[in-house]
Design brief:
2 copies of one chain form a homodimer.
Chain A: E1 12-13, E2 29-30, H1 40-46, E3 52-54, H2 75-88, E4 97-102, H3 103-115, E5 124-128, H4 136-141, E6 148-153, E7 163-168, E8 187-192, E9 211-215, H5 216-219, E10 227-232, H6 235-249, H7 254-272, H8 282-302, E11 314-317, E12 322-325, E13 330-334, H9 341-347, E14 350-351, E15 353-354, E16 364-368, H10 373-396
Parallel strand pairs in A: 1-2, 2-14, 5-6, 5-7, 7-8, 8-9
Antiparallel strand pairs in A: 4-10, 9-10, 11-12, 13-16, 15-16
Protein name (chains A, B): Alliinase C-terminal domain-containing protein
GO molecular function, one term (chains A, B): transaminase activity
Subunit structure (chains A, B): Homodimer.
C-alpha cells in the first residue's frame, strides 16, 4: 500500500510509465510512492496471454454472486485468490471467507469498522508498532469516526480496554517480519500482508490470522486496478466488512476483478509449469529483479560513510525451495542521528518519504525500489554522489 | 444509486443477467434494487463498437494524471464526461472540476467530507426532503463521523447553524424534480443528479450547481463498473473530495474508467449521428423503452382500485426537441393509508422497498422499473392480479 500525493508538474516520475521516461541529469525523480512499475516488462513479455476483452454489454449488473453475503465478489476472482495462496503457500484459505475491496486500503477501513467496539464510551484505539505505514493514521482518523481512533506506536500503548493492532509483515517501511506486540485479551488484530510474496521475502509458512489483507498492487504490480482482498476467519467480521464495502461504494469494479482473476490465473500457471513451460514464473522473475537491485543498493551503501540499511536474516523459502534473504519493496535508509535525510535527498532531486511520517526520527527515509529500471539507476548514481554534497548541506544548515 | 442487499438463494432476480432468466409462476422476483439491466439489449446490439481490450501490462501505475490534483482520473474519461454533458445539455462543465469515484456513492461521502465544517462543537446536519433515497442515512452515519450526522427530512429541519442539504433531482424514489428546501445562508448543497438523463426525464436546462453527482450506473446502465463522477465549482471543495478518494481507496479502477470513457464515447457518437448513422441514439432508445413500460404500468394501475402513482408534468426536452413526460427509473406506488404495501407485494412474490426506508409511510413502495423485460412483464401480471389477494391479506392481518 502507498499513500500517494500528486507530483509537481515539473517532476518526471515513475507514475506515468506509459509515457517514455526521459530522464536527464536535471530530472527530479519521485521515489516517494511504491508505484510497482518495476514489473511492467514482465507483463509486456506475457503478451496476449493476459489480454482481456470486455464487450459493451458485459458486467452491467451490480451483482456478482447473488446468494453470497459478499454479493459483489466475482466467483472467478475468489477462486483465483484461493488457488494462488495454495500455490504460493503464503496463506491459509480453507474454510475462510474471501472479500474483495477497492484496494486493500478500503479493506483496511472495512476491518476497522468490523472489529471496533461500538457502544462503549471510548473509541477503540488503533495501534501499530513504529515504524508503521505512513497512511494508517490518516486513513483511521480522517472522518473522525466515533468507532475508532489512531493511538500511534503499539510499543508505547498502555491504555486499558479494547484496541486494534495492525501487524504489517513484512513491514512497510522497513521490510521486517513482525508479530503482534501488545498481546492483550481485548485486542483485535489486522494483519496487513501486502508484501508477503516471494519476490520480497522468504515464504516461511502459510499465514493463518483472523484478518489478513493482500493486494493486487504489490503481488503482481497492478496498482491501477485497485483490487485488494481480505481472508477472514470469523463470519460475523466478514459480513460486517462486506457491509462496509456496500455502504462505502456498493461493491468493487467488476472489470478490475475479472482482469485480476485472469492475471492471477496466468501467475498460477507460471508457478506450476516453472522450468517446463514457456511462461516464466513471475515470482522467480520478481525475486531475481529485487535481488539484483538490492545487491546494487548494498554496494552503494557499503561505500558510503553516512548511510545504513537494515539487515535481513536468510531463511528457508518453501516456495522457491531455497535459503533466501528478504528483498523489500522499500529501502529503509538510515543516516546519523538528527540528520534530515529526506531534505538532503530532495536537494539532490530525489523525492522520498521521511521517517517522521512513519512515527520515527528524520534520520530515516523510505525509498521505493519498485521504480522503472532507468530511474532506479539514476537513484543509485545520485546516492553514490551524495556524500559530500549531503555533508555540505548539513553544515550549511546547522 | 441503489442500496442492495443480497438475495436469498431461492430467488430469481434481475441481478444476475448473464444467467438466463427462468421465471416460472412460482419465482420470487426482486424489484428492490435499481439494477439497470434493462439497457443490456441495447449494448448487446452495439457489438464490437464498445469492446475494450486490455493487455496484462496496461494500467499498472497508481497514477492517471500526474499534475492534476485529481491524479487518479483518466484524462480520457474526464474528456468523455465533459463532451457527454455538452451533447446532452444536462450540466454545465466549463470551468468546473471533474472528479471520478467508485460509484457516486463514494463521491457522495467525499462531498460530505469536503463541505462539512470541522472544528465546531456540533457535527454538521445532513438533510434531504422526504421521501429521500433510502441509503443516504446509513451512508452518512455508519462510521459515526465527528464531521457530519444524518438529520432526516429537510422539511422538518429547524436547527440553527451549518447544514448540508442533498437535492436529488429527479428524485429517488419518486421521480419528482426538486430544488433545495431549507435555503439558509449556512447551508451547503449536494445535487445528486443520477437520473437527470433523457431516458428518465425531460432535459430542461444545463444544471449548474456547486456539487453535482452523476453515475455511469444510471446514465448508460453500467452498474458493475462502479464509476461515478462529480462536477464541482470550487477548487477547495474539489481538492478535499479528491483527498477523500485518495484516503478511502487510493483512486478508482482504471479498467472501469477506460471502459466508461469508451462507452460514453459511443453514446456521444450515437447522439450526434442520430438518424443518419447505424448507431441508434442510446437516450432515444432508453426513452422509448421507459415510455413503453410506463404506459403498461399506468394501464394496470388505472384498472386498480387500490394503487396510485405520482403525476408528472409534460415539459419541453431540449435534448429530444419534444414535449415529453418523465419516465422515472422507479415506480413510487401508493396504497390507501396505513396499508403495508411492501408486505403485500412480498406475499405476492415481489421484493420491493417500503416507504418507511424513504422517510415516509408504509403505504408507499418503490419498485424498480429497470429489470429485464421478462421480469417486468411478470411484475405487471402479478400487480394486475393482486387486488383481491391484497385485500384478503389485509383482512387477515387486521
Amino acid at each position: 500500500m502507498v499513500g500517494p500525493a500528486y507530483d509537481s508538474k515539473n517532476s518526471i516520475s515513475a507514475n506515468n510509465p506509459t509515457k517514455k521516461l526521459l530522464l536527464s541529469p536535471d530530472s527530479f525523480i519521485n521515489l516517494d510512492h511504491g508505484d510497482p512499475t518495476i514489473f511492467q516488462p514482465y507483463w509486456r513479455k506475457m503478451g496476449e496471454r493476459c489480454t482481456m476483452e470486455i464487450s459493451g454489454s458485459d458486467l452491467m449488473s451490480y451483482f456478482s454472486d447473488v446468494g453470497n453475503f459478499c454479493w459483489f465478489l466475482e466467483p472467478q476472482l475468489r477462486d483465483a485468490i484461493k488457488r494462488l495462496h495454495r500455490t504460493v503457500g503464503n496463506a491459509v484459505t480453507e474454510d475462510r471467507y474471501v472479500l474483495v475491496g477497492t484496494g486493500s486500503t478500503q479493506l483496511f477501513q472495512a476491518a476497522l469498522y468490523a472489529v471496533s467496539s461500538p457502544g462503549g464510551s471510548d473509541r477503540t484505539s488503533v495501534v501499530c508498532a513504529a515504524p508503521y505505514y505512513s497512511s494508517y493514521k490518516e486513513e483511521t482518523d480522517f472522518l473522525q469516526s466515533g468507532l475508532y481512533k489512531w493511538a500511534g506506536d503499539a510499543y508505547a500503548f498502555d491504555k486499558e480496554g479494547p484496541y486494534i493492532e495492525i501487524v504489517t509483515s513484512p513491514n512497510n517501511p522497513d521490510g521486517s517480519i513482525r508479530e503482534a506486540v501488545v498481546n492483550r485479551e481485548e485486542g483485535k488484530l489486522i494483519h496487513d500482508l501486502a508484501y508477503y510474496w516471494p519476490q520480497y521475502t522468504p515464504i516461511t509458512r502459510p499465514a493463518d490470522y483472523d484478518i489478513m489483507l493482500f493486494t493486487f498492487s504489490k503481488s503482481t504490480g497492478h496498482a491501477g486496478s485497485r483490487i485488494g482482498w481480505a481472508i477472514v476467519k470469523d463470519e460475523v467480521v466478514a459480513r460486517k466488512m462486506a457491509k462496509f464495502i456496500e455502504l462505502s461504494s456498493i461493491g468493487v469494479s467488476k472489470e478490475s476483478q475479472l482482469r485480476a482473476a485472469k492475471i492471477l490465473g496466468v501467475v498460477i500457471e507460471g508457478c506450476q509449469h516453472f522450468g517446463t513451460a514457456d511462461i516464466e514464473n513471475f515470482f522467480e522473475y520478481g525475486q531475481r529483479l529485487m535481488s539484483e537491485r538490492w545487491e546494487k543498493l548494498k554496494a552503494v551503501v557499503k561505500n558510503s560513510q553516512i548511510f545504513g540499511l537494515p539487515k535481513y536474516p536468510i531463511e528457508w523459502c518453501s516456495f522457491t525451495g531455497k535459503y533466501i534473504e528478504s528483498h523489500p519493496a522499500f529501502a529503509w535508509l538510515k543516516c546519523k542521528e538528527d540528520t534530515d535525510i529526506e531534505t538532503i535527498l530532495r536537494a539532490n532531486k530525489m523525492q522520498t518519504r521521511g521517517g517522521e511520517r512513519f512515527g520515527v526520527g528524520r534520520e530515516y527515509v523510505r525509498i521505493s525500489l519498485l521504480s522503472p529500471e532507468e530511474m532506479f539507476n539514476l537513484f543509485l548514481e545520485r546516492l553514490s554522489a551524495i556524500e559530500e554534497k549531503g555533508i555540505t548541506y548539513e553544515k550549511n544548515h546547522k
